[in-house]
Amino acid sequence: MLTIIMKGQNLRHWLLGLALFSFPFVSLAQNGQERKYSEMKGFVNKPGFLEASPERLKSLKLPLGFTIEKWADGFEKPRMLAVGPQGQVYVSDPKKGEVLLLQDSNKDGKSDARQVVMKQDKAHGLAVHEGQLYVVTVREVYRAPIQANGSLGTAQKIISDLPDGGQHPNRTLYFGPDGKMYITVGSTCNACDEPNEEAATILQFNADGSGRTIWARGLRNTIGMDWHPQTRQLWGMDHGIDWFGDDESKEELNLLEEGRHYGWPYIYEKGTRSPKDTPEEGWQAYEKR
Q: Which helix (H) or strand (E) holds 231?
């Protein structure tokens, strides 16, 4: 048996941090009242690796007019892609801390050349803008000029103090139709009061790293987003809060707008209040989504 006696307002958040383990019984004292929690177990399901064989590719169902084929393979854990001005493809591998350049030199529709063009610890998000490749790590942003052969010139660090990673260290980086740079910063936790106001946000910068501002808030981890080609509206997919069960707190597709708060950690899906957390300042500010 494990018995824990603690005091404080954030005990529930602390308890959730233990969720990858299993405890027979936990007793907590809060505001003079004893609260008992029964056993809690957490599971992480990871898909197994399957080769992209011709048979598996044929089994995929695609929209009308689309085809699919294998262009490159032999990677360990590739993450993000960006396409250069001459069709070069850049791939990030944060586990190795590498950015790779892939090219189809004989134009047969398959990659036949690859090289490491940048090494930065936890390199993840990529974007090409005005002839330069931008690379974001956990806390830093680099940019380097793209040479005629696809290699990179000397990299310049333009941002060095993004928030710490915590539970969501993978940053993504995009350039909007306005020429501004947008960086997604996930939360450090599942559901908590963040000590850094820039956590769980989308940050906006000028292309040189200046003009820093919080563009949208209350987003647990919006890794993928893009602008509609006609309306120029920004849409993004946000991760839902964990530990609500298999069918609760689904991932969200959000229309993202400047200055909006999207509810995390108090509101999820279409206005559902979190049963675990109540904002001290009340619900109103978080429900105007």
A: none
Q: Which amino acid is at 235?
A: W
How far, in Å, CA of 284 to CA of 200, rounded? 19
Output the six-digit token pair for 187: 């939360």
| Gap between the Cα atoms of 238 and 19, Å rounded | 22
pLDDT in tens, 244-255: 888 888 899 999
Q: What is the DSSP letter of 148?
A: T
- Model pLDDT, residue 6: 36
pLDDT tens digits, residue range 66-98? 999 999 998 989 999 999 999 999 999 999 999
CA dihedral 13, 19, 24, 30 (to 10 degrees): 0
First to last CA, the chain: 44
Task: Give the HSE-up count for residue 75: Cα atoms under 13 Å, Cβ half-sphere.
Answer: 25
**3-state percent breakdown (helix, strand, coil) of the chain, nearest 5:** 5, 30, 65
How, if at all, do strands 201-205 and 213-216 pair? Answer: antiparallel
Token pair, residue 140, equals: 């830093």
